[in-house]
Specification:
This protein is an alpha/beta fold and about 400 residues long. It has two domains: about 180 residues, Rossmann fold (3-Layer(aba) Sandwich); about 200 residues, CoaB-like (Rossmann fold). It is about 35% helix and about 25% strand. The longest helix has 13 residues. The protein is elongated and about 75 Å long.
Length: about 400
């Protein structure tokens, strides 16, 4: 499956380093050419000879290693030859180096110079993972093109059972395969996705809106297209580049969004309403309101798009989003039932304009699945898995 693919595996000084041996073994079985790069701390936990034996290649411990002395500028030649660079486990230290653009050892230097796809599998103490500095570094890494998988809840080296454990090797391998051999399981599907936040004019220069960036909807569109689906993306007021070969249908108001959804709804196998639609609009708009005249707004309800299409959904999958500040799951379940949805994605305002998302998936049978914080493209794939 991975024949002809070159993968760089970074191993750092975390007790989960022993699991990296399983990753190397399984990737080798799948036909990949594996090069292991270790930090000096990682080499204290698992001997480099283990990885050399499993991978069949020299292990890179520093940029001046005698084993790779015949490779010209290894951190450039190998890092640019690679199809994927994955760091598992990724400690808080190496995540901070990548976020800060530091290159003071072989691993961080190669991480900075690679043009390959990139994946981090964080592993650390729960309080380290929750530290705002680490959270900011992870988010910056995502903006720099790194994807993340995990961490997950489980028993940690300190003895606590909490969030911070590295994802299991099989999960990491599955994600690697997805990155290098994209799935085409949605090739026969047509998916309609809405994204962004609607704007309702107050006057010609002002409007009512919300803080939605559209990143989740765009991630869903990209993930579905990568997996072979025919995607229609209806985009409301975003500042994002169109993903892949998709040409978004651009709208501004809730009424325009409703019209676009109804126009494209008939041919869709699934409709995913990720857009944040304004509940109210201004009843009447005139010329620009002058400051000295004061501002009093009379509002009226916007059309409920999910309600409008639920009655004619037939066999289509209908997915909604619920953003709540209180009683997240309870309020989401209420919306799920009222709108006759097949799935609802419950989330909080902390996801606004972030490259990461933490959500709870709730199916029409009431089953719940909380997803750990991850890059929105990863969360998008998990949502699509739940839909189809």
């Amino acid at each position: 499956m991975l024949k002809g693919k070159t993968i760089i595996l970074g191993v750092t000084g975390c007790i989960a380093a022993y699991k990296a041996a399983t990753i190397v073994s399984r990737l080798k079985d799948l036909g990949a050419d594996i090069w292991v790069v270790m930090t000096k701390e990682g080499a204290q936990l698992v001997g480099p000879l283990t990885f050399r034996t499993l991978s069949g290649n020299p292990v890179i411990l520093d940029l001046y290693s005698q084993e790779i002395i015949n490779t010209p500028v290894p951190h450039i030649s190998l890092s640019q030859q690679a199809d994927l660079m994955v760091i598992a486990p990724a400690t808080a230290n190496v995540i901070g180096k990548i976020a800060g653009g530091l290159a003071d050892d072989a691993l961080s230097t190669m991480a900075l110079s690679t043009t390959a796809k990139k994946l981090l599998a964080p592993a650390m103490n729960c309080e380290m993972w929750r530290n705002p500095a680490v959270a900011a570094n992870v988010e910056k890494c995502c903006r720099l093109g790194w994807e993340t998988i995990g961490p997950v809840e489980g028993k940690l080296a300190c003895g606590d059972s909490d969030l911070g454990r590295m994802s299991e090797p099989e999960e990491i391998i599955a994600r690697i395969v997805e990155l290098l051999v994209p799935r085409q399981d949605l090739k026969e599907k047509k998916v309609l996705i809405t994204a962004g936040g609607t704007r309702e004019p107050i006057d010609p220069v002002r409007y009512l809106s919300n803080r939605s960036s559209g990143k989740m909807g765009y991630a869903l569109a990209e993930a579905a297209r990568r997996r072979g689906a025919t995607v229609t993306l209806i985009s409301a007021n975003v500042n994002l580049s169109a993903p892949l070969d998709i040409r978004p249908v651009k709208v501004e108001t809730a009424q325009e969004l409703l019209a676009a959804v109804l126009e494209h709804f008939k041919n869709a196998d699934a409709v995913i309403m990720a857009a944040a639609v304004a509940d109210f609009k201004v009843k009447s708009q005139k010329g620009k309101i002058k400051k000295e005249n004061g501002l009093t707004l009379e509002l009226e309800e916007n059309p409920d798009i999910l309600t409008a299409i639920a009655s004619q959904k037939g066999t289509k999958k209908l997915v909604g989003f619920a953003l709540e500040t209180d009683d997240l799951v309870a309020n989401a379940k209420k919306k799920l039932a009222e709108k006759k949805l097949d799935l609802i994605v419950a989330n909080g305002p902390e996801n606004f304009d972030s490259d990461l998302a933490k959500v709870v998936l709730i199916g029409k049978n009431g089953g719940e699945r909380a997803l750990p914080s991850a890059a929105k493209l990863i969360v998008a794939d998990q949502i699509l898995d739940a839909v189809f």
